[in-house]
Each structure stands twice: as structure tokens, then as C-alpha cells.
Amino acid sequence: MRLTKYLLPFMLVLTFSLLAGCTSTDQEKGEKTTQQTDEKMITIGWPLDVGPLNPHTYLPNQMTAQAMVYESLVEYNDDGTVTPKLAESWDISEDKTSYTFHLRKDVKYSDGTTFNADNVIRNFDAVLANSDMHSWMGMVNHIKEVVKEDDFTIRLQLDEPYYPVLNELAFVRPFRFLGDNGFPEGDMTQDSIKEPIGTGPWVLKEYKKDEYALFSRNENYWGEKPLVDQIKVKIIPDSESISLAFENEELDLIYGRGIISLDNYTYLKDSSKYKTATSEPLSTKALLFNTQSGPLAELKVRQAIQYAINKEQMVNSITHGTEKVANTLFWDAIPYANIDLAPILYNPEKAQQLLDEAGWTLPKGEKIRSKNGQPLTLDLIYIATDAIQKPMAELMQGELAKIGVQLNLEGADVMVGLQKLMDDQVDINFWRTNGPPTDPHSFANESATPNASGVYEAKLGLPNAKEIDTKIHQLLVGTDEEERVQLYTDILTMFHDEALFYPISYETNNVIYQPYMKDFAPRASEYDIPYAQMEKEKEK
Amino acid sequence: MYESTWMFSLKRIFTLPFVLLGVSILTFVFIRFVPVEPAEVILRLARVAPTAEAIQALREELGTDKPLFIQYLLWVKGVLQLDFGTSFVSKLPVAHELFAKLPATIELAVAAFILILGLSIPLGILGALYRHSIVDKVIRLLTILSVSIPTFWLGFLLLYLFSLKLGIFPTNGKGTLAHVVLPALALALPTIGLFVQFIRSTIIEELQQHYVQYAQLRGLKHSVILIRHVLRNAAIPLTSLLGMTLGNLLGGAVIVEQVFSWPGLGRYLIESITNRDYPVVQCYVLIIAVIYVIANLCTDLLHRLLDPHLMMKDRRD
User: Fold this and answer.
1) Domains in chain B, ordered, with CATH?
2) The model's pTM
3) Which of A11, B173, B188, B237 fits a disulfide with B115 by CB distance 3.0 to 4.6 angstroms?
4) Distance, CA of A509 to CA of A524 (rounded, Å)
């Protein structure tokens, strides 16, 4: 009991001395941390941990990190062309079912082992052993075998022609290559890998899960060497915290789509202390109308909604001009998508007229239109945490109220919205395209088969849904380029005329970087960050 | 005296399994109320078509196709063998990852705890001694502010002031003492506000007790009365509050960890809820429950140590 008598005074003294001790040492350390900028290292903030860096699997792997370590046979460029990468050339057979790739002979893995046909085939086998997981990629369902022709030549044999093979091979996963020493026992890469050994320009050097990943230059790299020695990816889950860390010079740059809110981006940009850049569009933000039942089964209602919203004003005010207004589902640089389609421009009178024609009339003294006693109300689900979807949804609610349409809004997480659409429980969802290199064929693929994107279900109410499906199948297996162009034109025109989507804006990668960094061009890619071009000026 | 304390502890420890049983059943049932099941989430994340067959196959793989009761029994069976299951997403053992992140969260909670003790006790005493003076009013204003500001906003205010404007502390990360100060402060401040008010009113109450007047009559020095008698008596209700606080600190850490990029349990929990990673959520709740129960037990023991009346009562019973 005597002990407790002195407990409180003792605790007091202890805590105060600790506190006093803390603050003095903290100050010194704090200063050191904030001023620690290495000339040869670029530090970037990213909201999610880079993951296990497994080239053959999806989440929790981050595409941007996988792309640093692993490379593909061919590369997809922002202009839609495909160029050599690990394969220096390729031949496609007359019947378009056989692809022969001639591999580069000067490629070494980061551990010094050679990249060759045996290794490529081992990687293909590991991926195809788990083909269910990759079946979203149409090619996987068509590969018959992968054969070694000689030490640096492989042949990919398909069961029937499938034109987007090269685009799918260019994608960041799963067709990228792990060094032999990285394979786990039994080659079951779908479960785990032993070590992230790739041919890419960067090697993982240090990793603390949920804190940071440090990549250093791959000294065995066959291509052009990056300008800096190291890239540090700091994991900062909160977007506000990322902008604060950047302002505090703990980060050299922020790069990507939706990494920080557009408000913060505009704030940093307007401070004119930093350099900014915006990539070409990579994907499209749109509304997807569910035509399975309800008022949206009618074309005129879908069109009326599109006429009723002042899109230009909405996009410019909410995205502060960082996204471009979209009038068609795909941006012109997307292959096969550069076709003439008449845009639906803001015209509220026309919207009212269309609804009148469709029999949705405004009873005297009422604010909401109705037909056969049924009021014109629609449900829209937005992603609750999305900084852009919510204000857009609210703005559209206001616009539609003006023409007598009641829009009910519901914030939910990503999964809920999709499921409700597939189960025909909601009228409108936000939706976005996949972006290059798999668009537009992955869009076509997903539209014709029940799939995670919801387009297949949403279009079930279209009168020409069957016709669209047939044309999509034709175009994926067709071998004639001219015919393919025609089919894409037909399909995209049908979607456009049926007003199944309401294209809103083209999303871009927004980049903001410290003034001491040299300029570089951001890419229109979800995963390729041009680290190799980044460099700091000599004097900071 | 020692015997009864031992018995007391034993009894409390004996109830632990029942508490955990209750908590685990509730978690097990509640997490399944979250719309969209794990099989579907995993398929969508992998961009695989969530067809009925694919979902069924994955349910079988995950074991979520079995009746809820069987799932629970299997899980309990695993837990009894210290196998907390495998994460649906990372496919790694849950316990491995959770225990790897636990130290970071505990570090944060302990730092906040120290701040709470170190700041709220002196401020509470000051407020009580200089009641209704300007010092008291300033302290009260600050405590009301600290209680009312939402944690995430408070976090950003601290970051803005101490990192961006003053440049004293880094904005994110973990490693040095400097990294822990701001998150611990953000976590501690709301509780500090609560405690200062509590300590202030308890001391004021104690000062009006007869024993204080008696001590004054005996001619004891003011400081002696305050430290030996008043503070000690005031510490008794404080200890029960402290026990609960530790639990709240662990829970509150979820938001603070997000704002300050602190690699602890809270962030992992948020990710796991989004991914419907049931085993992780279940194990997390279990760990927090154990800590909560143990913290409460410690408080009760401390309580008994400080207040002999309680022990006497036990002995009489």
C-alpha cells in the first residue's frame, strides 16, 4: 500500500520527463526527415501497398508496381500502335491462328539469368494453369498451345482467330515474365512467388508492407537506363494526406487518376509553386442505363435524360477542367473508335418534348411527370467515397427535376452498385471504360457476355441486343481488317443511337511535381508511369 | 488480502472465454449482413465474370457455402488450435498479418495514453485549483474544442500546423519518435478533453469533503492535503475510466492511422471490410476484445489496490 501513495506523483514526473525528452529530440529528427531529399531518388505517394509483386495475379498487386519490374512481349503505345518489347519481331500465320515471336537475345533478368524461350513457356504454362482466373482476357480462352521453336523463338497457337492477341499480351498482367529463380515449388504462381525477379528497369530493393517500397535501377537492364538510381513508393492511404506530404516536400510527385481530389489538385496547381501535367485521356466516365425494366426501357426517356443535363458546365465546374467533356463512349485515339457520331447536346426543351412524346406527361400542379399513374422516378447509385461522382449526381438530380424527372440518389460501395444493376434493382449506375490497351475489344467482350462490368445485363432491354452480340462475336474472331472496322462502327453506332450510355468525361492521369524536377510527359496508361524519364535538377 | 485478489483475477479470467464467444458470434453474424458476399467481390476484383457457377465454385473454395452454424464451428475449431484462418484476398494466414501490425497500433495507443496522463492530470488539477479564473476558462474552452472536433479533421489541422507551417514533424510514416507525436496527439486530444473535465470536477468534489476540512484543521500543508489525500481519492474513479480509454484508443486508431499513414491494424481493417475479407475482420475483433477485457481487468485490479474498501467488502462477503 505504501507503493500506491507515491504512484501519482511518480507517474506525473515520469510522463513530464518523457514528454520533455520527446519534444527536443523530435524537433531535430523532424527537420531531418522533411529535408531528406536524395538527388538520385524520386519519391512518389501511392494509396495502396504495392503488393507481393506477382506478375501473374491481380489484387492486392498494384499494376503500377508490376509494370516497373516485369515486361511484356510487345508494348502498347498511347497512339494505339503496338511495338516490339521483349519480342523483337513476330509473324502471324495466314489463317491468323498462329503467332510466332522472335525473342530478344540480349535480355537478362535482374538476377543475371537469361531470358529465353524455355522461360517464356514456363511463364505461359503457369498462367494458363489457372485460366479461369484470366478468362476475362479473351485470348486465354483461345490459346491451344505455346510451343518452343528454338531457344529464342516461341509459337502461340490459337484454336480460332482472335484479333486482339497483341493488345492483350501488352497488358500489365498476367502475360509478363518471371525469372526462373522467382518461381515457387511446383510453379504455382497463382498462390505466391519466391522472389520478384523481372526483366524490367527496376528491382525491388527494400520493402516494408504498408509503409514503403524502394526500387533501385536494374543494372542488367537491356533497354535505356533510367536517369535516377532509386524510386521510393510511399504508401499514404488518405488522399488529403498525400497532398499534404507533397506540399511538405516529402514527395517529389503525385501521379495518376484520382490519387488526390480534383479540388486539391486545382489548389496545388493554382498556387503556381509546382509544375503540373495532364495526360491524354485514358478512360471514359459515363452513366450506364439499365434497360431491363422501368422507364429506361424506353429509348425516348434515355435520350431525354441526356438532353436535359448541361454536361459541359457540369464537367468543367466539378473537374475544374482536368477532364474533357465526352460526347462519345471512346476517345478518338482508341483503335476503331474514331467514327462520326452526332453528339447529344444540351437541350432541355427537346428533353421535355421527348418525354411528352413518350407519354410521360406533367399533370397540372404536379412537379413529377407520370404515365398511367406511374411517376417518373429513377434510382442512381454512386460510389460514396468518390469525390466526383457525388457532386455530379447531385447536379444531375437538379437538372432532371427541371424537366419533371425525380432522381433518387444512393451512395454505396463499388460492389453494391454493380450487383443491384445486374439484379435489375437500380436504374442508373456510374460506369467507366477499361482504357488501353484492352479497349475497345474488352468492352465488346464484356458487353456480349455476362460479366463483371454490368453492360451485358443493362442492355438486355434493347431491341437489337441479340444483333449486337452476334456482331461482337464476328468481330472478335474475324480475320478481315476492313470488316472489323465496319463491325466496330456498326456496334458503336448502335450503342450510341440506343443511348445506352451517357458519356460524361474523358479521365486523365493528373501529374503534379516539384519545381526542382525536370519535365517529363505523362502517359495515357493506368499502369505505366514514365519513371525512366524522371530526373531532378542538379541544384534544388 | 492476496488470496482474494488472486481469486478475483481468476474469476475474471475465467469469464474471458464467454465474452469472446459472445463477441465472435456477433461479429460472425453481423459481418454477413454487409451486402455482396466475398466470392463475388473476389471475382469482380479479378475481373472474372461472377456467373452463378463461378460464385458457387469460389464459395466452396472459401467455405462460405456451408451453413452459417457449421462455418462458425469450423472457425472456432481453428481458433482453438490457434489457426485464425486464411485471408480471402492475400491468401496468407490472418494471424500472421494481424500480429505483424499489432505492435504499430499498440505503440500508437501507448503513446496516446502517455499523452493523456501527462496532459490531462495537470490541466485538470489547474482547472480545479483556479476554479472560475481565466486559466480555468481557457482550459475549459480548449477541452470543449478537443472533444467536439472530429478526429480526422483534427488530424489534418495538426498536420497543417505542425508539418506544413512549422515544419516540426513529418506528415506520414513511422520509425522515429517524431513520427509518432502527431498521430498520438490526434488520438489523445478528444480523451484529454474528457479527462480534464472529469478530473477537475472530481477534485472540486473531493475538496469539499469533510476529511479535507479535518486535515486543514490538523494544520497540514495545502500541498500535502492535495497530493496525499485529494489526488489519491480522485484517482480511484479515474482508473476505471482509464481502462475503457485504452479500448477506445485502439478503436479510434482506425481513423488516425488512415490520416497519418500509420501502418497499423486499423488501416488493415478498413481494407478488409471493403474486400469482405471475413477471416481478417473476425480475428481483428477477437484481438481487440481480448485487449479490452485484459485492460479492464488491470483497471479493476488497480482500482482495488487504490481503494481498500473494495477488498474489505470482498473479504466480508
Assistant:
1) 103-274 (1.10.3720.10)
2) 0.78
3) B188
4) 7
Distance in angstroms (rounded) separating the CA atoms of residues A351 and A347: 6
Number of A to B CB contacts under 8 A, please give it: 160
Q: What span, in angstroms and rounded, lies between the C-alpha atoms of B282 and B289?
A: 11
- Report CB contact under 8 Å: B267, A210: yes
**How far is Cα B288 from Cα B292, in angstroms, rounded to an integer?**
6
Query: pLDDT digits over A409-461, tens only?
Result: 988 876 777 777 777 788 888 888 888 888 888 888 888 877 667 888 888 88
Instruction: Indicate which of A24, A34, A232, A446 best probes the interface with B, i.e. most B CBs within 10 Å of its own CB.
Output: A34
CB atoms within 10 A of CB A320: 15
Q: Burial level of A121, CB count in 10 A (0-12/13-18/19+)?
A: middle
pLDDT at A361 over 80: yes
Residue A413 DSSP label:
-
Question: With contact defined as beta carbons under 8 Å apart, do A261 and A239 qualify?
Answer: yes
Distance from CA of B6 to the nearest CA of A (A): 17
Q: What is the pLDDT of residue A44?
A: 93
Q: Which of residues 195-224 of B touch A (CB under 8 A)?
A: none
Contacts of A221 (CB under 8 A, 6+ apart): A199, A200, A201
Using CB atoms within 10 A of its CB, is residue B310 exposed (0-12), middle (13-18) or buried (19+)? Answer: middle
pLDDT in tens, A381-401: 888 777 788 889 999 999 999
Q: Which amino acid belongs to residue A487?
A: L
Q: Tell if the CB–CB gap between A250 and B171 is shorter than 8 Å.
A: yes
The candidate with the shortest Cα–Cα distance to A87, out of A39, A37, A156, is: A156
Q: Look at A241 and B261 and tell me if their CB atoms are within 8 Å.
A: yes
> Do residues B261 and B173 make contact, with C-beta atoms less than 8 angstroms apart?
yes
Write out the H or E segment, with its range, that includes residue A449. none
Give the CA distances from residue A536 to residues A140, A240, A531, B42, in Å, rounded to whole numbers and listed in that order: 42, 25, 12, 40
Cα A193 to Cα B300: distance, rounded to the nearest angstrom: 49
Neighbouring-strand partners of residue A75:
A83
User: What's the Cα-to-Cα distance from A508 to each of A42, A202, A524, rounded to whole Å?
Assistant: 22, 25, 7
Residues A107 and A200 sit within 8 Å (Cβ to Cβ): no
Got the DSSP string for B235-251?
A: HHHHHHHHHHHHHHHHH
Nearest partner of A162 among A512, A438, A508, judged by Cα: A438
Residue A345 near residue A435, CB atoms below 8 Å: no
Q: Say which residue the cell 518471371 belongs to.
A: A178
Q: Could you tell me the CA-to-CA distances from A311 to A30, A372, A509, A536 in Å, in that order?
A: 47, 31, 21, 40
The beta-carbon neighbor of A245 closest among B35, B172, B176 is B172
Q: Which residue of B has its CA nearest to A14?
A: B118
Q: How far apart, in whole angstroms, are the C-alpha atoms of residue B99 and residue B157?
A: 31
Q: Count Cα neighbours of A387 within 13 Å in the Cβ-side half-sphere.
A: 15
Contact A419 B40 (CB under 8 A): yes
